[in-house]
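Local shape tokens:
==================
===
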Amino acid sequence: MPTAILGQSYTFHTLFLDGSGNPLSVLGPTARVFRFNSVGAEVSVSSGSMSAVSGDPGRYQYTFTVPTTLSAGDTLFAVMSATNPNTSALLTAQDNADLIYNPQTAGGINARFIR
């Protein structure tokens, strides 16, 4: 599973496809990022418009900064939605990422191999 670092930017990607499996330039692509709290309720983390990836038709991305108020071990979930311009159908993709502390600032052991 992908990992996101607390306090750092993270990007969710998706590739929207038509019914034949071909890349599709969509209308109004958005992303909604959330987590679940200790009682299973959804808690919003971030949301906004997705950007088209240049030179890669049908691929979109959403970048945000992972809040430092979250905890390592939490999982972020993303629901990415857009409208198919040919059929007006709602297209939805989902992804997730586990949260970790920044290995450069979290302390602990650093290993280096020396000849």
Summary: Residues 36 and 42 are 5 Å apart (CA to CA). The domain at 3-100 is CATH 2.60.40.10 (Immunoglobulin-like). The chain has one domain: 3-100.
